[in-house]
Amino acid sequence: MRHRWWVVGFQQARDDRAEGEKVSNGALDLVQARNQLLGEHNSTGRSVRLDPEALREALVDLYELWLTTKGHEVGITPDSGLALVAVGGLGRREMMPYSDLDLVLLYDDVDPQRVAEVADQLWYPLWDAHIKLDHSVRTVPQALRVAADDLAAALGMLEARHIVGDEGLSNLLISGVRRDWRAGIRSRFDALIDQAQTRWRRSGDVAHRAEPDLKNGRGGLRDIQLLDALAIAQLTDAMPGLGPEVPGGGLQQSHRRLLDVRTELHRVAGRARDQLRAQDADEIGAALRIGDRFDLARMLSDAARTVSYSTDVGLRTAGNALPRRGLARLRRVPVRRPLDEGVVEHSGEVVLARDARPQRDPGLILRVAAASAQTGLPMSATTLNRLGEDAPELREPWPKEALNDLLVLLGAGRGAVDAVEALDRTGLWGRLFPEWGVVRDLPPRDVMHTWTVDRHLMETVAEAGALSTRVARPDLLLLGALLHDIGKGRTEDHSLVGAELAVSIGNRLGLWPSDVRTLAAMVRHHLLLPDTATRRDITDSDTVKMVIDALDEDPHLLELLHALAEADALATGPGVWNDWKASLIGELVRNCRTAMAGEPLPEPTPIPDDLRARAESGGVHVDLKPGEGRYHHIVTVVAPDGPGLLSDAAGVLAVHSLRVLSAELTSVGSSAIDTFVVAPRFGDPPDPGLLRQELIRAINGDLDLASVLARKERDAIGTQPRPFAQAQPRVFWHETADPGRVLMELRAEDRIGLLSRLAAALAEAGVNVCWAKVMTMGSAVIDTFCLDLGDADTPGRRAEIAAAVLAVVPPQQPKKPPEADS
């Protein structure tokens, strides 16, 4: 017995009862001893406040002592054919101050009248003492039938523990329930998931509720019991996917913290309670020596998000481990579908390819996460653990392909939120961005914000992805969304601190110095437009001058801040972004843009002499040489010019899994010169001789590129539904100094063979492309085509061309109705 001073108090309470009165008359001694534990005084009258863990242990000892003593008094002995079994909190050894007492009285070959008498002698004293009691009296076969028919009862009995009486009888129940649970888990697994999802919908997320349900909410104590049930079924480890080195200390530490908060909640409330009320948070935080309610909220967010991630991993692992029957047992081993270099899909998860070498490939972490975000497939916990153990740090500045993979990840919309959450819970995101630790699980300081700061940043990234086609630099928009509040959690102005951090991070990512300055300015001024528009006269010339002076008259920065302001507001909470604010900021931006100078239009790059000479010599030529990045290559195509050449060249590259990162398309005489910067989706690039042969086949009409690309896109999507674009594709028209020539700029999200499809659409529309510049930034494309429309340059003709171009880009994600505020 661990806490001897309260044992003395328990015995004293029994002795203080009326002299000569039998102890069996009631359980007031139990209540008095419990109150003594909660009253923070020992038997000598000195103040002794047990910490939450010690209090739970003391309560378990107390109830076991009382039940054992009472059981012996009423005849529940080892040879009596009776046994008392605890389930619930007492069964788990997690007794809370005011939790229900869940007991099962088992009997075998005992007269029913005798069983009833014993039950009454057990239950009535507890009822008379106002101790909440959940009880049942059954034989072992009866209990097993109840567990087979009632999922909730089965989950409870999995936690059963012998207290007093015939231990063999208790073991029959415990072993029988667990045996039946393992044997029947395949048929009960779907119901188990449905039950959990219903509970999550009803109770919300512990991590993001102002007054969370610590027991039933997503990431709460019920989820840990769910993991234990899956472990008993031998489908998963009870502590999946996390270790002690991850942020917050892993699942075991999170479990203890949730128990501690719930214990203090009972102690503060003076009764059983699972929902943490805001008015109790400061007192509980102080009792746990955590700090104020904000510190408590931060600790709870970390614990609950760790539990949520572990639950997702556990359910996924269990689903893959379910025993198969019938024809399912005869199916072939799941195919490993390539997703990126060193990354494949296997059994519905993103995993490492067999030949992947994490020790030599620091960018593999980002490629795995980008593939997960784009496909919507979760990353395997084993893969994340292996990356955590083996993947080295990225060198600074990052390689270009690593930056591009980061942009692909951030541009994936809602998929980016889940992927970054998984990286963060396993310690990998903090390795990429050490600054994240200050904002991780940081609670908001005002009621408008729904999310913790780190989650708000990712929500802003997701919203910014849907606005990426409104800006000329979607890459900087995504990075600005990721970092705009990175300076929070410090005493200084978070915009100023964040701007300094943005410089450090931008240099680490390998951005151009001018882009680093723009990124820092976005973070520094991310509140400039909403604050000015809602607090000052936006028609006043002094107001407009103040804004454009702060932005150094940079129209690109103004455009980026406009989109970031909307994304930030949308990610803050319901109703923060509305028509009134949108109209004010929009008018302010228009006034500032009018006061700024015009922007230079894109121009073709001069043609090197060697390429000019090759073009003048005629013929079809394809060269391939290494580019600047580890996986980047430069493909140069010189061939007789024609309406379908660009489509054929880009299509051949796409067929051979070469993703076009940028391209410049020009011509000399009757020959076209198309230069592509490409990256293989996986493996090595094909031989340039093969590319040349395929290009000639396409030019001659012997290769149906449209059909091959359609099939390749279907294979790439696999079993997942066709992905929708996050952002609305947009076409912009710019005038040039040459009559009849216009610039058409397309901003859209990428898809397999997009450039080939665009060129084919322009060719079918009868448009002459004079030159083009193509740029891919993550998953977004900015494609500029110089079109010679001649006398046919009319609004109707432009609308016709725009419609043809937009018909081949990914469709936009359908809008979902707003979720109810939790």
TrEMBL record:
<comment type="function">
    <text>Modifies, by uridylylation and deuridylylation, the PII regulatory proteins (GlnB and homologs), in response to the nitrogen status of the cell that GlnD senses through the glutamine level. Under low glutamine levels, catalyzes the conversion of the PII proteins and UTP to PII-UMP and PPi, while under higher glutamine levels, GlnD hydrolyzes PII-UMP to PII and UMP (deuridylylation). Thus, controls uridylylation state and activity of the PII proteins, and plays an important role in the regulation of nitrogen metabolism.</text>
</comment>
<dbReference type="GO" id="GO:0008773">
    <property type="term" value="F:[protein-PII] uridylyltransferase activity"/>
</dbReference>
<dbReference type="InterPro" id="IPR043519">
    <property type="entry name" value="NT_sf"/>
</dbReference>
<dbReference type="GO" id="GO:0006808">
    <property type="term" value="P:regulation of nitrogen utilization"/>
</dbReference>
<keyword id="KW-0548">Nucleotidyltransferase</keyword>
<dbReference type="InterPro" id="IPR045865">
    <property type="entry name" value="ACT-like_dom_sf"/>
</dbReference>
<keyword id="KW-0511">Multifunctional enzyme</keyword>
<keyword id="KW-0378">Hydrolase</keyword>
<dbReference type="InterPro" id="IPR003607">
    <property type="entry name" value="HD/PDEase_dom"/>
</dbReference>
<keyword id="KW-0808">Transferase</keyword>
<dbReference type="InterPro" id="IPR010043">
    <property type="entry name" value="UTase/UR"/>
</dbReference>
<comment type="similarity">
    <text>Belongs to the GlnD family.</text>
</comment>
<keyword id="KW-0677">Repeat</keyword>
<dbReference type="InterPro" id="IPR013546">
    <property type="entry name" value="PII_UdlTrfase/GS_AdlTrfase"/>
</dbReference>
<dbReference type="InterPro" id="IPR006675">
    <property type="entry name" value="HDIG_dom"/>
</dbReference>
<feature type="domain" description="ACT">
    <location>
        <begin position="743"/>
        <end position="816"/>
    </location>
</feature>
<dbReference type="InterPro" id="IPR002912">
    <property type="entry name" value="ACT_dom"/>
</dbReference>
<dbReference type="InterPro" id="IPR006674">
    <property type="entry name" value="HD_domain"/>
</dbReference>
<keyword id="KW-0460">Magnesium</keyword>
<feature type="domain" description="ACT">
    <location>
        <begin position="634"/>
        <end position="710"/>
    </location>
</feature>
<feature type="domain" description="HD">
    <location>
        <begin position="453"/>
        <end position="557"/>
    </location>
</feature>
<dbReference type="Pfam" id="PF08335">
    <property type="entry name" value="GlnD_UR_UTase"/>
</dbReference>
<protein>
    <recommendedName>
        <fullName>Bifunctional uridylyltransferase/uridylyl-removing enzyme</fullName>
        <ecNumber>2.7.7.59</ecNumber>
        <ecNumber>3.1.4.-</ecNumber>
    </recommendedName>
</protein>
<dbReference type="GO" id="GO:0008081">
    <property type="term" value="F:phosphoric diester hydrolase activity"/>
</dbReference>
<dbReference type="Pfam" id="PF01966">
    <property type="entry name" value="HD"/>
</dbReference>
<feature type="region of interest" description="Uridylyltransferase">
    <location>
        <begin position="1"/>
        <end position="338"/>
    </location>
</feature>
